[in-house]
UniProtKB/TrEMBL annotation:
InterPro entries, per database record: Porin_dom_sf, Porin_O/P
Species whose genome carries this gene: Pseudomonas brenneri
UniProt xrefs under Gene3D superfamilies: Porin
Entry protein name: Porin
Signal sequence range: 1-24
Amino acid sequence: MIRKHFAGFAASALALAVTAQAFAGTVTTDGADIVVKTKGGLEVATTDQNFSFKLGGRLQADYGTFDGFYTKNGDSGDAAYFRRAFLELGGTVYKDFKYQLNYDFSHNSGNSDDGYFDEASMSYVGFKPVTIRVGRFDPDFGLEKATSSKWITAMERNSAYEVADWVNTHENGMGIQVSGTAADLFYGSASLASKDINDEDGKGVKQFNGRIVLAPMNKGGNVLHFGLNVAARDLNDAAFDSRIRPRLGARGVATTGGNDAGTNGNRATFGGGVGLNASNLTAVGAYDTDTVFGGEFAFASGPFSVQAEALSRKMKADSNAYQDVKTSGFYGQLAYTLTGESRAYKLDGGKFDAIKPENKQYGAWEVFYRYDNIKVDDKNIVVSSATRETGDAKANVNTLGVNWYANEAVKLSLNYSKVSTDKITNANGDDSGDSIVGRVQYVF
């Protein structure tokens, strides 16, 4: 009943916000103490900035087709799904307290038992420029993850993240984070979270994240950005899913919130996963610590931008029956806005932001190329199988894409990806494949 009422409220609020999208300007009460903004969602705030309320959201509808390595038999498969369908509610209370609730109707984050909350957090900003945040949110790791999914260049974030997919996802856990900027030059964050994996005593697995960014140039169209990241979790006495299963840019091989390729989708296991039980969990005591280090770089000059990230992971064995699992990955990306606009950048968060079209009739057009590379070294695999040879499993993905920012609310994207693998194939023996994915995005 509660979920039914929430869905009804959400639908009504969504309709109100979409209707508000058609209007622009500011309305002030006779008392001159409340301002209502209707451009880009619905926002109500007091003029003294002590209280505010903003309703927004995003809808991303995807369709993709893929073949070769992306399917088990190599034949063409396809998928149509909502990648994200967020209703976002945020605001300010008593000036120094902020709240954020993001609810995902697409089922692509969370599950029915956890209510699909992508974020539910409170922040204290009274110690400016330091922010203290508590609740459910994604830990801070990496430039592309820090950038909102609304404004990342490619439709899916880089494959390097997939060899250590726990580092920047909340996994339905809770945490606390301290972040802030300094000298108009630095950004940093540190967080501690309790994830939804428990040890034998029922204690949640604890995870630490740290990130520091140096950005001597940090204005839109004039960016020079360097960053370092670390994430670590204690897996001692915990059973967990140790499989490394990248989608390699084609979410539709296995997704939720719509149709995917079903049993023919090939989300292959590159490593990990030795000694799994019926629930796909590695035995308690198999591994001790899981540590990831990362680096990031970005440069932007006018409509041109380049960015790159690399990471290295070590899952340390805690039993003579197992060997350490080591993974690494990197990507490099070039992007250019044909219509001349620059990508916005925010030092607070160390991230890129939206491209806002200057021409309201034709919008903004962006093209990009990205190269992804991953490697998984798992010496627990001592016998070759039909789809996985012994030795380091590798993959690289070349992606070409175009984005049309029709206006500040609507974005259309088309990505083509070519994957090649080594030491791992699908059931048909394919070590390469092609993927084409399109998206329609509406943001309010």
